[in-house]
Amino acid sequence: MSRRTLKLGAVLLGVGGPGQHRTWLDPEIPADASVDIDWYVARAQEAEAAKFDLVFIVDSQFITPDSPHHYLSRLEPLTLLSALALQTRNIGLVGTATTSYNSPFNLARRFASLDHISRGRAGWNVVTSGDAGTAGNYSRDEHYDYATRYGRALEHVRVAQGLWDSYEPDALPRDKEAGVFLDPTKLHALDHRGEYFSVVGPLNLERSPQAHPVIFQAGDSEEGRDLGAEIADAIFTHAATLEQAQAFRTELRDRAAAKGRDPENVLVMPGIFPIIGETDEEARAKQDAILGSKSFERALKELGRPFGWHDFTVYDLDAPFPDVRDAGERSFRTQANAISKLARDENLSLRQVVERFSQSWSSPFVGSPETVADAIQAWYDAGAFDGINISVNVPSEFALFTDRVLPILRERGVVRREYESSTLRGNLGLPEPENRYAAARAAAPQDEPVLVS
Amino acid sequence: MSRRTLKLGAVLLGVGGPGQHRTWLDPEIPADASVDIDWYVARAQEAEAAKFDLVFIVDSQFITPDSPHHYLSRLEPLTLLSALALQTRNIGLVGTATTSYNSPFNLARRFASLDHISRGRAGWNVVTSGDAGTAGNYSRDEHYDYATRYGRALEHVRVAQGLWDSYEPDALPRDKEAGVFLDPTKLHALDHRGEYFSVVGPLNLERSPQAHPVIFQAGDSEEGRDLGAEIADAIFTHAATLEQAQAFRTELRDRAAAKGRDPENVLVMPGIFPIIGETDEEARAKQDAILGSKSFERALKELGRPFGWHDFTVYDLDAPFPDVRDAGERSFRTQANAISKLARDENLSLRQVVERFSQSWSSPFVGSPETVADAIQAWYDAGAFDGINISVNVPSEFALFTDRVLPILRERGVVRREYESSTLRGNLGLPEPENRYAAARAAAPQDEPVLVS
Known about the structure:
Two copies of one chain form a homodimer. By secondary structure, chain A is an alpha/beta fold. The two termini of chain A are 32 Å apart. Helices cover 37% and strands 11% of the residues of chain A. In chain A, helix 2 runs parallel beside helix 3 (104-117), helix 3 crosses helix 4 (146-164) and helix 5 (222-231) packs across helix 6. The first copy, chain A, has an eight-stranded parallel beta sheet with strand order 9-8-7-4-3-2-1-12. In chain A, strands 5-6 form a two-stranded antiparallel sheet. In chain A, strands 10-11 form a two-stranded parallel ribbon. Mean pLDDT of chain A is 91; it is low at 449-453.
């Protein structure tokens, strides 16, 4: 089998990269973009015109006045994506939803509805909620611990997949002449009783065009990687260097294979931050301007997020980095631990940590259109990723990517010229999941001739 | 104040009325209409062209093979309504969502998102889930008892309203020049700790165009009426006779007044089933054909629903109606009790009960366009309702109403000629809720001059 073309995801108002906190100040972005449906429609249509595989909506259910600004007020992802569904035709619609504070019946139903409405373009980015404060919005005194979060996530997704199988493909003859709506032998209760959820079923919605909406997952912890290898069709991640990206993808594929999965069906798609200029020099100057725009004070506040929005302003900036690992235990633990470890290993002060993590960032994809295209192709050829996610927020920057970089990659056969399919699963080159009951029926000895439907 | 025009709701695939179970067999309705977004878009646009106030989507999260057919497989209401939002401009979008199996933070956010996306046309039909089997889909062995269902509903709605007030109207200056996104003194945590829910807040979504999406409520029990009088902007109900409808509306208005509310802001909107012919005779023949189409076997099965899908086929049809009141205790209790009481009072057999409740129904709105228009106006003038809900399922029948009945009512000034507002609240003539924190601020003595924003 020939390798897939490079998959392209467009992140709307995504977190990450330098300057993220300044998005709302950009003269090209309406300050209220995060609640303006027309803005989302325009960005999704631009990404579709450039033959992107998907738009991706991040999410969180907890805010503080220190949240990056757009996140203080934004639309709920599935409501938003459903509105986009009838304004687009081919692009995938991937929404973030947490397994920690939703019930599997409700989420399975909402994603299956989106899949019907979009005629097969729904995707679910499965998260467990890193912000510990989320618990307070859901009648809990404390956020679930790490093991519980990931245990719930796995069971939640398995229940959703079971509900999506409730109806066999031919369960609803809807034969008006014969007066037969349902074949009740092909509608199945799930009867799930697990550690975290009990769900009888069946789902009150038939098999959707993709059978199962595409599952995305992010999360870099041991538990996160294990969950991704188990359930994900595609993994969102980050990629600081080519070697790290290669190592991550190799590890994920190995984990998936160890679980009996075909690693070709687990796509690794890091977020990258191309900075494009007419020349390499112009692009580097652009990067310097972006980095310089972030204040130390803002960076100090944002450092608190992986540590459950811990307040770092109370410490001496030039004393050794404080030991606040406990604060991160129920938040973004992997990131918090990595920061703490580096600070210990290199004996860094708080000031040095802030500078290291927030100010001295450099994109591996900076330069002229040719330079950026070359770098993307080199990483792709080296097996660093199956696809990339890039921000679609600033129209002029996105246009530099679609109008200057993509044509080079298209000429080289790295990205598609036209959509191959009307479904997200089809465009990503992923197989359609088999219905578990239909599969069992096909495997069982037949007493009667099978009717052709 | 002059009285409002008669409000018009269009029910898509709504339950009720004779022949409901046969909807999918209608030659004008695609058999898969319940999952076909194009069908919903077309119906909503027809209702909007006729200047209806709203489309209304019913819901349930529990199915059995005996469910009325379309309900075996249908789209989730909010996902569906969000897709309709960008295909319509003026019509209200009212979705059913249960307070028994949703968290207030999630529902508040989803309805506020729909309100932003639709530019002010969202409505929430608050239900508590009558089908006791729903519990099994939400990790519960048993459905909540009646008192708990209604206690949760009231607290749930109050929490949602509190979350909708999180941002004062001018909390987000988003002043790019001054670099000020948020005025943190105008963003408020709710800090709710109640009997059923604890929710810290704030909501991560600013005040929506209607401030609070419009609240609808149905439910005919004592608890249901009390809840409606307390929280509802509009009440969905049924209306068998003019006198019953008058009495219900008077009672609801009195209850609302007793709670300190202006009864003018509680609209009573029963579902009615006009059957229209060129002549009264033709219409009556149409009604007879609809009634005759329902089999006794089907009616016997459907009688089970208010009693938690109790199986009535096991009883002797000609023995006295069995005492199965317990079966209805956690389902549609009011309806189950009414049926049981009538059977006892009149000493009816099971067969007679089936015939009474399913076969001998008669619409008060049967006749020529003039006859139906006269009846609607007579009820409206007599204070039987503030608005009506009718089914929009069968295009030719709906066209008879919009093209033949509405022009008569329009000529008489009973219904509108044009939308008065771009919001549902505006078209229903309901006041905009005041933000609780802004109100407190306005009421408090001011230390500083108030800035005009």
